[in-house]
Every structure is written in structure tokens, then in C-alpha cells.
Amino acid sequence: MAANESVNSQPTELEAIVNRWLVDYYVSLAQELFEKELYADFIDVRTVIDSVLSRPCEITNDLHLKIEVLKFLSRINEGENLGEKNINALIMTHHFLKIVYCLGV
């Protein structure tokens, strides 16, 4: 019986790791789609990410930052009546966040 308990506990740990990989991949894909202005596809990928995050997922500081950037992009995408000036400021902020993320600051 103890062996079964040990085996049964492993998939949760493994699932959390695999889900982290999935979220990492899909966040990168969502960012690419957003940059290419493929907003419908961006929303579809964001839905997949939400589904994966509803399962056990190992959240690292790095992944947490990526999710925050995704939330930021989602707000830009969903924004209406932001005005051209505000949109440009948000896009510049997005580019800044990408630089900070790449530098690992």
C-alpha cells in the first residue's frame, strides 16, 4: 500500500513541472502572437494558459514575471478607448519589460 501512495504522489509533482514548461512555452507564443498583431490567436493561447494554470503548476519567479507580462498584454488587448497616446505608452512599457526580462534584472 505504501508503494502505491508513493507512485500516486509522483504524478502531481511531475504534472506541476510539465505544466510549468507548458505555461512557459505558451506565454512565449502569446507574446509572439501579440507582437504580430494576431489578437484572436493571442486570446486562444491565453485561454490555454488559463486552463493549464488551473492545474498544479510549479511557479518560479521567472514564470511569475512572464504571467504578469501576459496579464499586461491582455489588458492592452482588451482595452477600448485608451486613446493613441496611452496605447503608445503601454507598448513602450511592454518593450521595456521585455528588455528587463531578457536581462534578468
UniProtKB/TrEMBL annotation:
<dbReference type="GO" id="GO:0003691">
    <property type="term" value="F:double-stranded telomeric DNA binding"/>
</dbReference>
<dbReference type="GO" id="GO:0032210">
    <property type="term" value="P:regulation of telomere maintenance via telomerase"/>
</dbReference>
<dbReference type="GO" id="GO:0061820">
    <property type="term" value="P:telomeric D-loop disassembly"/>
</dbReference>
<protein>
    <submittedName>
        <fullName>Uncharacterized protein</fullName>
    </submittedName>
</protein>
<dbReference type="GO" id="GO:0070187">
    <property type="term" value="C:shelterin complex"/>
</dbReference>
<dbReference type="GO" id="GO:0070198">
    <property type="term" value="P:protein localization to chromosome, telomeric region"/>
</dbReference>
<dbReference type="GO" id="GO:0031848">
    <property type="term" value="P:protection from non-homologous end joining at telomere"/>
</dbReference>
<dbReference type="GO" id="GO:0003720">
    <property type="term" value="F:telomerase activity"/>
</dbReference>
<dbReference type="InterPro" id="IPR030657">
    <property type="entry name" value="TERF2"/>
</dbReference>
<dbReference type="InterPro" id="IPR036507">
    <property type="entry name" value="Telomere_rpt-bd_fac_dimer_sf"/>
</dbReference>
<dbReference type="GO" id="GO:0031627">
    <property type="term" value="P:telomeric loop formation"/>
</dbReference>
<dbReference type="GO" id="GO:1905839">
    <property type="term" value="P:negative regulation of telomeric D-loop disassembly"/>
</dbReference>
<dbReference type="GO" id="GO:0032208">
    <property type="term" value="P:negative regulation of telomere maintenance via recombination"/>
</dbReference>
<dbReference type="GO" id="GO:0098505">
    <property type="term" value="F:G-rich strand telomeric DNA binding"/>
</dbReference>
